[in-house]
């Protein structure tokens, strides 16, 4: 059994968890949503300062709730890429300090690998290979998961991420930040067939469209034009119908691509991760379409869809069990493809060398 204390500060949640293999012992998430709400989005410098103010308390609380002490912790994990550089640095510095002070190995974790591992916490018997639909505030990707650390991107967005599109359209509809949950709630009272919107197909030079890549900029523009037209015709905007139609279109677009990809590559399991995995229309449509093709589809519980440190700890525990550790010289990276995740770890040979120094 591998026990890890994990830190996540890549964006606007200060999160710390203690995880044993695929089991959560404690998970503290201090959300900064209230702080950023007045700006309508995350302000990076404000996020970093807020992490500094909160992190020590979150670490102490996570350890206390777990009922464990430092002697039971096998490694210190932290998200080190991708994300807001200042925010990442707070978690990374805290993790390095703890690793040095308590003489524990450091395990840097790729944020998106964490989102994939959220599903292992919910389904401890889950094993690769499977297809992951990762839909978050910054990413929309179809990822072939072949093993821990072995990923291939099969499709991705050409412009906005799905969560970003939700946030921008919510702003257009005068809804509060973050926009995804607000649209989801409002859509429950609306008619998803009220407006016909474009699904954002990517044309290929020789004709036809890209089967797995997506685009949300056309949909966003269509929403803007529609809202402008409706505002000319009437002073009352049918916001619930607009939210339901927009959400239904995003869900249809993602479902179509995900099912096509799973069938073409022969995956019998689809795992969904990231904040947009909480969306009700996506959950309903994907479950229905997958059932028709005899494909199993797994959604993590809502608390594990958005950013948390338990998912980071789960990924770190698996890496640590395989002897993957990070050098104390590990840096934070605002960008790093998930296919390059093994760059975060020293090979056993290198770590032996470091020990000798
Ligand atoms: N029920 C929902 N329906 C649609 N979108 C949602 C829902 N709940 C959350 N979201 C969206 O999920 C996003 C946040 O997810 P997450 O925390 O995974 O993203 P992130 O960490 O900011 O981005 P990334 O993981 O790509 O770095 C926001 O854009 C939010 O609007
Ligand atoms: Mg995230």
How does the SSE layout of this entry go?
Layout: E1 3-8, E2 13-20, E3 23-31, H1 33-37, H2 44-66, E4 75-81, H3 85-102, E5 106-110, H4 111-122, E6 130-135, E7 140-147, E8 150-156, H5 162-172, H6 179-187, H7 217-233, H8 239-265, E9 269-273, H9 280-292, E10 296-298, H10 302-305, H11 310-321, H12 348-356
The site of adenosine-5'-triphosphate has 24 residues, from helix 4, helix 5 and helix 6.
Description of the molecule:
The chain has 357 residues and is α/β, with parallel strands linked by helices. It has 2 domains: 3-116 and 306-356, 2-Layer Sandwich (Nucleotidyltransferase, domain 5); 130-302, 2-Layer Sandwich (Nucleotidyltransferase, domain 5), CATH 3.30.420. The protein has helices at 33-37, 44-66, 85-102, 111-122, 162-172, 179-187, 217-233, 239-265, 280-292, 302-305, 310-321, 348-356, and strands at 3-8, 13-20, 23-31, 75-81, 106-110, 130-135, 140-147, 150-156, 269-273, 296-298. The strands form 2 sheets. Strands 3-2-1-4-5 form a 5-stranded mixed β-sheet, sandwiched between helices. Strands 8-7-6-9-10 form a 5-stranded mixed β-sheet, with helices on both faces. α3 (85-102) links the parallel β4 and β5 (106-110). α8 (239-265) packs parallel to α9. The longest helix is centred in the C-terminal third of the chain and has 27 residues, at 239-265. The protein is globular. It binds adenosine-5'-triphosphate and magnesium ion (MG). The site of adenosine-5'-triphosphate (ATP) has 24 residues, from α4, α5 and α6.
């Amino acid at each position: 059994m591998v026990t890890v204390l994990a830190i996540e500060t890549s964006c606007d949640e200060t999160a710390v968890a203690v995880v044993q293999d695929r089991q959560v012992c404690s998970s503290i998430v201090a959300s900064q949503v209230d702080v950023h709400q007045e700006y309508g989005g995350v302000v990076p410098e404000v996020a970093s300062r807020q992490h500094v103010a909160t992190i020590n308390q979150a670490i102490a609380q996570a350890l206390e709730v777990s009922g464990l002490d430092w002697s039971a912790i096998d490694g210190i994990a932290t998200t080190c890429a991708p994300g807001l550089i200042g925010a990442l640095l707070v978690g990374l510095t805290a993790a390095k300090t703890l690793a040095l002070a308590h003489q524990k190995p450091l395990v840097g974790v790729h944020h998106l690998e964490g989102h994939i591992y959220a599903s292992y916490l919910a389904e401890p018997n889950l094993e690769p290979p499977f297809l992951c639909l990762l839909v978050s505030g910054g990413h929309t990707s179809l990822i072939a998961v072949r093993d821990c650390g072995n990923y291939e991107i099969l499709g991705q967005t050409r412009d906005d991420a799905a969560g970003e599109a939700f946030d921008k359209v919510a702003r257009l509809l005068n809804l509060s930040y973050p926009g995804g949950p607000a649209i989801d709630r409002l859509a429950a009272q609306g008619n998803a067939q009220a407006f016909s919107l474009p699904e954002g197909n990517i044309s290929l030079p020789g004709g036809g469209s890209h089967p797995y890549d997506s685009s949300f900029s056309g949909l966003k523009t269509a929403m803007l034009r529609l809202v402008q037209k409706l505002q000319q015709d009437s002073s009352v905007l049918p916001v619930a119908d607009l939210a339901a139609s927009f959400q239904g279109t995003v869900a249809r677009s993602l479902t179509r691509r995900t099912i096509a990809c799973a069938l073409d590559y022969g995956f019998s399991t689809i795992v969904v991760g990231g904040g947009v995995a909480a969306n009700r229309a996506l959950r309903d449509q994907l479950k229905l379409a997958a059932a028709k093709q005899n494909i199993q589809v797994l959604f993590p519980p809502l608390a594990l869809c958005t950013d948390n440190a338990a998912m980071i700890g789960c990924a770190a525990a698996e890496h640590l069990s395989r002897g993957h550790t990070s050098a104390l010289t590990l840096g934070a990276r605002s960008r790093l493809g998930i296919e390059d995740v093994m760059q975060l770890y020293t090979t056993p040979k290198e770590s032996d060398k470091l020990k000798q120094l």
